[in-house]
Amino acid sequence: METRLILVCSLILLAFSCSSAQKAAAKEQLNQGAKLFNEQKYTEAIQVFEKVLEKDPENTKALYNIAISYIQLKDDDKALIYLNKTVEVNPFYEDAWYNIAYLLYKKGDFKGAVEAGYNGGTDALNILRNSIAKLKEQGIEIPADTVQQIIIGALDRPTIDSTIEKYSKDYKKCYETALAKNSDLEGRTIVNLVIRGEGKVASAKINRTSLNDEALNLCILDITKKIVFPVPKGGGIVIVNYPFVFRPVRK
Asked: Which of 68, 78, 177, 235 has the maximal Cβ count within 10 Å?
C-alpha cells in the first residue's frame, strides 16, 4: 500500500468569507505551496499552506496538502491531525479518508483503519480487507461481505445531495422552530446514515454536532430516516456522513 499524493491548486471559499483580493492571494499561496511541494521542499510548503489557513481556517485544500507534506516528512502523527481536520470540514473528502486509513493501518490501529476505510472510496478496498484480516488474527470478527457491500453499493455525492435537497423545506422548518427560541443558533451537524440496498435509510444518528439544541438534532434525524434514495449501484449498503450547516440570514 502506498499513500496517495494529490496536490490541488484550486481554491473554494464561501462567498462571504473573504474579499476577491483575499481569494486571489490565497489561490496564489496554494499555487506557491504546490510548487514547493513538487520541489520536495515540504517544510516550506507547509509554512505557505498555513498562511492560507490564517485567512480561511476551514480550507480543505490547505489542510489536506499540509497533511500530505507531513507524510513526506515521515511525521504521521501531525499528518493525522490535519487529515482529521480535513474530514471534519468535509466528510466526503475520500482522499483524506484513504490516507487516514493508510496511516492507521501502519500504526496497527486496524479497527480505526476499517472505520476510515469505509469513507475512503474504492481505493481503500485493499486497506479494508487487510485490516479485517488483521482483526481476525486478533480474534475480532467483522463480516467480510460488509466491505464488498459498502464498496459495490455506491451512491455518488451529487445523487445524495439532490435527494436530500428535496427535503430542504422540512429541514428549514426544523431550524426555524429552533431559531425562534434562540436567534443566535447556528452551526453544523454531521449525520451518519446507512442506506439499504433498496434505497431506504436503515439507520441515522448524530456523528458530531456544534448545535447545542437536542430538539433540532432530533428533528434532523426524523426527516433523514424518512428519505428514500435511489437504489445503490450493485446493491448492498451505503454508509454516509452528511453535513447539515445552519446559519441565520442576517440583513
From this structure: 68
- Gyration radius from the chain CA atoms: 20
Q: Which fold has domain 157-246?
A: 3.30.1150
CA distance 39 to 133: 38
| Residues forming CATH 3.30.1150 domain(s) in the chain | 157-246
Q: Rounded distance, CA 56 to CA 235, Å?
A: 39
The values of phi and psi at residue 80, to 5°, are: -65, -35
Helix (H) or strand (E) holding 243: strand 238-246
pTM of the predicted model over 0.90: no
Segment (H or E) for 204: strand 201-209
CB of 71 closer than 8 Å to CB of 79: yes
Q: How far apart are CA 8 and CA 180, in angstroms?
A: 41
CATH of 1-90, one of 1.25.40.10, 3.40.50.970, 1.10.630.10, 3.30.750.24: 1.25.40.10
Residue 190 and residue 91 in contact, taking contact as beta carbons nearer than 8 Å: yes
Q: Which three cell numbers stand for residue 105?
A: 493501518
7-44 pLDDT tens trace: 332 222 333 334 566 667 778 889 999 999 999 999 99
**At what angle are helices 214-226 and 168-181 packed, to 10 degrees?**
170
Distance CA 251, CA 246 (A): 16
